[in-house]
Amino acid sequence: MIQKYIIAGALLCATVSIKAQEVVLKGKELFGNLEARHIGPALMSGRIIDLANHPTNSRILYAGAAGGGVWKSTDGGATFAPIFDEHAQSIGAITVDPNDPDNTIWVGTGEIWTRNSVSVGDGLYVTKDGGANWKKVGFDKSERISSITINPSNSNEIYVGVLGALWGDSEERGIYKTTDGGKNWEKILYIDQTTGAGDLVMDPQNPDVLYASMWEFRRTAWGFNSGGPNSALYKTTDGGKTWNKIHNGFPEGNLGRIAVAVAPSDPKIVYAVVESKKDKGLYKSEDYGKSWKLLNGDFGLVVRPFYFSRIVVDPKNPDILVKGGLNGSISRDGGKTFKNLGAMHSDIHDIIFDINNSDRMYVGTDGGVYRSWDGGATLDMVDNLPLSQFYHISVDNEEPYNVYGGLQDNGSWYGPSSSPGGIEARDWTRVGVGDGFRVLRHPTKQIIYSEMQGAQNLWRYDIAKNQTKNVKPLKVKGKADLRFNWNAPIAISEHQPDRLYIGSQFLHVSEDQGDNWKIISPDLTTNDPAKQDKESGGISKDKSGAETHTTIFTIAESPLDEKTIWVGTDDGNVQITTDGGKNWTNVVENVPNLPKNTWVYHIEASVHNEGTAYAVFDGHNNNDMNPYVYKTTDYGQSWKSLVTDDIIGFARNIQEDYENEDILYLGTEFGLFITIDGGKNWSRFTNNMPATAVHFIDLQKKTNDLVLGTHGRGVIIIDDISPLRQINQATLNKDVHFFDTKPYVVTEEGGFGGGSTELQFVGANPSSSAQIIYYLKKRHTFGKMTLSIEDMAGNEIVSLTPGKSKGINIVDWNFRTKGPKVAAGKTLTFGGFTAPRAPAGSYKAVLSKGKNRYETTIEIKNDPNSIVTESERAQQQKIAKALFDDMEELAYLVYRIDEIIKTAEELKKNDPKAEKITSAVVSKLNDLKKTLVVTTGDNYVNEAEPELREKLSELYAEVANQFETPSAGQLENKAILEAQLDKALVTFKTIQEKEVDKLEKYLAKNEKPAVTYKDKAAFLK
After folding, report:
1. ∠712-714-718 over CA atoms, to 5°?
2. Is the pTM of this model over 0.85?
3. CB contact burial 262-286 (16+ within 10 A = b; e otherwise)
4. Which stretches in the chain have pLDDT values below 50?
5. 844: containing domain
6. Do 845 and 879 fall within a single domain?
7. Structural domains of the chain, count
8. Residues 232-276 pLDDT 10s
């Protein structure tokens, strides 16, 4: 019995020991230097929420985006750079501290123009070093911060206006004040859980006087309500201790959103745009808000107050004011009359005037930032802000593959994943207008499907013929009117390439690319009439179709069985058919711990098992910010949650890895999360990946690229995620592990890019090099570590700089070997920097850490599309090698000349008797050297005539960089230059036998150090 207990105890210890050895890596420890690249586009940019400028330096300004973070310009708005990538990318307000404008900037997160697709924020941030580092200072549950106002005489006194939650009640709303620079906050104005601070402005001449616009509002998935009895405009004259409504002259009854602005040059003048049922429009006060007068009710001033509620007054002229709106309105007579701003993207959200010149303006729109130099008459778009807001993306199988997607208010597009010189604006092609959503490429034909909001159009675009047809399904006799979501789902069958699906409340299928449709389901939604056809908007009617509810939102045909189709609805149903639509089962009741009617945002049918699928539910429009991610392996009969505390933000999309079912990629409101163990542990990917909303994920099967459609930072690609597939406990417990890589192809195609200007965004291309990918269990900190490429015989051909980070390291090798030794001269010869390409074949990558050596094999292949024959390739390599040797022969010759001259000149300096001998040597050798290398001039305007080195290096570079056999002209040029080199060697030998020989005898006779130099092998080493 005692023996049994001993055995059991030993087994228990063994189990504990095994568990203790399990390695779990998180974040950068897992991903190492696997890095995302941004391809934009920027030609249609994205929604700008707030603009702010430096109070004394007109070159510095800031732009806050709906989902793309904070961007800073130091050149007057010509270009911008991101400074807020690690934090929530939805921005509500930016304020520069007037007392420390070079260093202190405050940012409130959470978009305040409350359309149904807005992102959320997570609090208030401050930087004390101009944006290099940020610190959160509270308001974690604020969701949306509309205003930040700082006392111009006291940076410790700050007011914050919290608009608050869009989709539910919140006690975080109201006006807050700090008197200690943000350490402590006091709520100084609060109405109720439904009424937030829409605007907060300070009298520029009296910091105790503030105006606060309080707004009662609520959005649901099927409607919006703006206004109520609690909407009001308040004023304080004692720094927020007491507040009073200032409605004298305002409309009677309930009010909605109120925009307010104080004229900086004359603060007794206050403007307000009031949302009301009657007498809505622009009101003006000329007595600090004591009384108001209605001046103007133009459509441009009152349209969509929830979306356009910003008034800006010229800092020097109180009669010039601008109002955000559909086109933007400007008045130059104190608000009596308005005209539209100049041509630019519609939907104007913010405007700022240049601090020195009011004719210079900056405008934030749904399409990015615009600049004007003539008071808004004409405008120029800033071309380098890649803030595109994708709802959906997809990829094709072209080489390079294309990325397709639809954008918020910016149509539908496709563009290449790589392009010569980088991915430029001109590389993108428009395939839709309006709000773009799903864009799909036909698997086998030159056909693209795209749609615009609410399936108003479903286009079938023939690329080759440049023809477009609307193939949207129409109402069927005897059936109900069709309800399409604003973001209506379409899907292409993986089994029948001409088969196309679209969802209304029914599932529609076409077997002929949309020419004919049939309905293959009953109404798959809850069909709740309370969530249909309701008046939306509240005080201001706003029924655009964006609130159409009880609709199908996601469709997933199983890639393993065409009769198995999953459908998810925006009102919470998960429907499945296993017989091609004849029978349907709602399996959402089987999902544990899921609040009822939670939006089914995405269903992913597994490529590994027929009964397996993943479902992502989004409850944020029920004011539920929790992520819901589930997996079923039995056709929805049971579900398992994959959510852990590692996931931040509500989830929107999931992508299953095609090869390793334990690897999943999850997009949330705050970025990308990856699991390599089936959901037990998730890691946030942050390598050049901002905390932006990831709305859709696709995986390109040929390249293994993870392609992300973000709602604020365009398309982001992580190239070749295949190393993640090879990570397991065996790998993680090794000190060093090399990942298997596919053969690398030396691409021979070329082309010209680089047509963009310095002010335009250009998307990054993927690496065209071979990559040595390895895992380090620990970061290398002490001792020598080297990485080299060797041929299979063990000869080193090039040395590389190793990555030393814990986790995955990726080192590029550009297929080049060591470059030639180049003759020294007065100037550089750029051809001499060219290294020969390694021929196709197998090579060893060798990592040395101290006494330990680790190696892996890399295979290089020639381009399969090459027009170069093997014999031509061999000839090119032979001639390149000969010219390489010529370069080094010349280098060794010049080296010897220099060493002899150095010895002779040293002797001449110390021994006047030797002048005749040394002068002869130096003169002869310098005459020779002048024919070999450039000995005068510089690398720019004082350019000397090329000598042998320059001519030889230019020819060498041409031949080494090309793939085809050298031309007759190149071969003839080679013969000419080699003849010159041979002649120079003969001349040098003659000088050696005469002048140098006399020098050497003199040195020996006078017991002085002899002429010495390295032998050729030592010199070239």
Report:
1. 120
2. yes
3. bbbbebebbbbbbbbeeebbbbbbb
4. 1-20, 941
5. 744-862
6. no
7. 3
8. 999 999 999 999 999 999 999 999 999 999 999 999 999 999 999
